[in-house]
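FORM 7B - TANDEM STRUCTURE REPORT

SECTION 1: FIRST PROTEIN
SEQUENCE AND TOKENS:
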Amino acid sequence: TRTQRPMVNGYSPVVAREYVERVFWPLFPLNQGELGPEQARVLAGLKVGLITFHDDPQVYTNKVSPFPPRLFLERLAASPSLRPLARAGDVQVYEPVGHGEAPQAASRVTSPVNALWYCFELHHDTGAWARDPAASGLDYLLQTGGAGRGNVVEALPGRDRPGFLSYGPYKALPAGSYLARFRLRAEPRGPDQELGRLEVTSQGGQRVLASRRLRGADFPTPGQWGDLALPVELEGTTDLEYRVFWAGNAPLASNLVLVGFTGRPQGPGEVQAEDLLRQTGSVVDDPAAGGGLAVLGRAGFHPPVYLCHGPYRTFEPGVYRARFHLRLPHPEQAREGLPAALLEVASDRGKAVLGSRLVRATELGPEYRALEVEFTVPFTRELEFRVRFASRVDLLVDRVEAAPAAPAPAR
């Protein structure tokens, strides 16, 4: 507004419609790691010579994508249409070259993080709210107000009309192969009964990308929650809507939708800290880390929030043990009783803490040490591994491993 000049991804709160239509939307796929022919043409027309990408949660917020910015930084790095010039902290500078490449070339780079939406974050035009303690999201709902909502939407014959039990959220995902999983509960009268359908759509529901009929056979244990999957292929950045249509002839309830890249594992396993979401810290080179990278928290500079959290992996009921790999880059900072980090295994967007441990600097050293947290999963739910930085000593986070806890020896 001061200069009256167009600014690519600028910070003016008031922009002309022409800017939105000719600059913002055509270049939006760059935020998703895609530089195709259209983006190359617009950049050339605007005479853009340099592009910066910020691997920073204060700049790249979850309004842009449910996946961490690290995914898109790596996709841009894999693009033959960009030449990396320099990196300073969390900022990478690129020079556009060539005429753009197909988005599929970058889609081979994926993330371990799942995109998660509870039904109370979506819309519905039939059914009624209910609160089910054996379904995900209840702790998050109750601790954030709830406003009369429930963690599930359920529809009953004779009470509710046929319609959409849940739909939304119209959030953009980049090119790639995905698996959308819907958590549903039904009480069919038989295996052949038609209950409705699942859909993944774009363009406000006008374009159906994937669809699946719901039948009684999809619910082998009536009255119990289960996940039904729908594969989705995206050729480029697309706003998506996930819909559960209810036919009106048997009880049906919806809890959540979880979307992840095809081939990425669920449940126990290992995940690198730099690949997770984070609220603070920086990704740095660290030859001592498993993948050569780690997340660094600098005392007094990075605030006391999460150095990493995610990936919303689905865990079945059981007892598990998580091992967080941490070290002190400056062991001379260790002082008796000084906190380094709070380790948490949590669900419901961090509101349901299943296990935690306060780590003090005296427990750490210059080499990575594995700090264990045991936790119990009472029912199927999505988990996060969270490292809350104390901002009292510098800290490096390498990775987190989770595995079933060894059973107690028989007596």
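SECTION 2: SECOND PROTEIN
SEQUENCE AND TOKENS:
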Amino acid sequence: NAMSYRQLERYIEEIRASGQVAPELEVELHNKLGYPVICLVMALVALPFSFRLGRRGALYGVGVGLALGMVFLGLFAFSRTLGEAGALPPLVAIWSPGVAFTIFSVYMFLGVET
């Protein structure tokens, strides 16, 4: 976390040039761009439930949004761990949970009655 994106990128290139593989550093490199996007994804996930007040009330939407946020963060951490272990490519490990939940939220938003 102390290195900037460019510094970490150069450091990974040096490690690759020496013949070593460092998937945990590559995951961290992608995480420097992917982690800030989490805020947008979590807002997108909660958005459909904010419009579904209905009979259940506002707290229902907030509760579902919080639960889905926790599921998303758990999936993100699990995916990141798989990337650090080398089971997933770093790009896939960081971006796949965000893409999956964005698609899910768009699907849920399309079902909102206006």
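SECTION 3: OBSERVATIONS ON SECOND PROTEIN
The chain has a mean pLDDT of 87.
Helices lie at 5-17, 23-50, 58-85, 90-110.

SECTION 4: SIGNATURE
Preparer initials: ____
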